[in-house]
Amino acid sequence: MKLRTVRFEENLGKDEILNIRKVVAPVKFLETKEDEISENTAFDYYIAEPENPVYSPSGKSRSAILLFHGLNERNWDKYISWAEYLADKSGRVVIMFPLSMHMNRSPKEWANPRAMQRLISMEFSDKKDYSNLSFLNYALSSRIKSDPFRFYLSGRESILNVTQLMEEIRGDRHPVVHKDAKIDIFAYSIGGLLAQVLLKANPCDYFSKSKLFMFCAGSLFNEMNGDSKMIMDRDSFASLKKYYIGDFIRLGAEKRRLWDYIETAFTTHIGEKFFRGERENFYKNNSHRVSIISLKRDIVIPTSGIRLALGSSSDICLEEMDFPFDYCHENPFPVSDKINPSDRKYYFDKIFSRAVEFLS
């Protein structure tokens, strides 16, 4: 597989996001002004190209898959094999697009075990009763605990970034993807929520015909459980859920709400009762464009939460699977001496062959 890097310079909505970020509550121990994190607004993203891509006479790909990752990810290691399979089996390029403040869009210190463990020791020197806090999730946990609005703000920025990416493609300004290319989405974990908002909001009608395949994704926000050493500590996640069910809805404009098409699409996916009819009608009318595989033992994005999001369309769009080996949401295909490699490969191929078939 060939991996190509493409430079992205944020323009769409940049001033709006930066101005809001300036008034978001600071994080004491990180000592980072988030409106000054330059790597979040100018960064490289990967494009995985198959061995035999279908190119137009201009040398650009006629078809692409957007791949969205999970929450609190700092590198693409887990996704390289995913992108390779999708690219080679579909013959389409796969755009591995990093979400706001994730992957290479965040300070390197946030992924530095020694630096984060030092901050944990400083902040919690007088107590040891925190739950699931680790050097892996300290940066995200402390940022969310300081101001839960960051979660939505990063999601909004990511939506605007993807919209700008589509503007570049449709405007024939993309170096790899043709302006008339078919664009579909493969989304995992919180990347699924981003994709759901994209399809529901449908900025500039860019996603009117796009298909969405989700793996371990698609739940209502209120049904998710991000309490994990790899995602967020327990107190921070509890604060996050409380905020979006309460203040985010109740206080409206006082809490920096805009009530535009992006926020409406996001709000329909917060809890079961929020815009339930509108949400379920959307999936009913678009059930042919959405396919989801959940895992039975996934406690982060449970199947029950996905069913609540889809309503009656879950009978059409959703399939729950299980693997005959130990796995978790954060690592669905673990490498272990206790797991037969052929079993792992069988179920990996089963999941991703379904994705290729559906997105074709």
Describe this structure in words.
The chain has an 8-stranded mixed beta sheet with strand order 1-2-4-3-5-6-7-8, sandwiched between helices. The model has no long low-confidence stretch (mean pLDDT 93). The protein is globular and about 65 Å long. The chain contains 13 helices and 8 strands. The protein starts with a strand and ends with a helix. Helices cover 39% and strands 15% of the residues. β3, α2 and β4 form a beta-alpha-beta unit. The chain has a single domain, classed as 3-Layer(aba) Sandwich (Rossmann fold). By secondary structure, it is an alpha/beta fold.
Mean pLDDT: 93
Main beta sheet? 8 strands, mixed
Cα-based radius of gyration, to the nearest Å: 20 Å
CATH class: Alpha Beta
Low-pLDDT ranges: none
Number of DSSP-assigned strands: 8
Helix proportion of residues, in percent? 25-40%
Structural class: alpha/beta
Instruction: Write down the domain tally.
Output: 1
Strand order in the largest sheet = 1-2-4-3-5-6-7-8
Distance between the first and last residues' Cα = 19 Å
Order of helices and strands: EHEEHEHHHEHEHHHHEHHEH
Quickly count the helices: 13
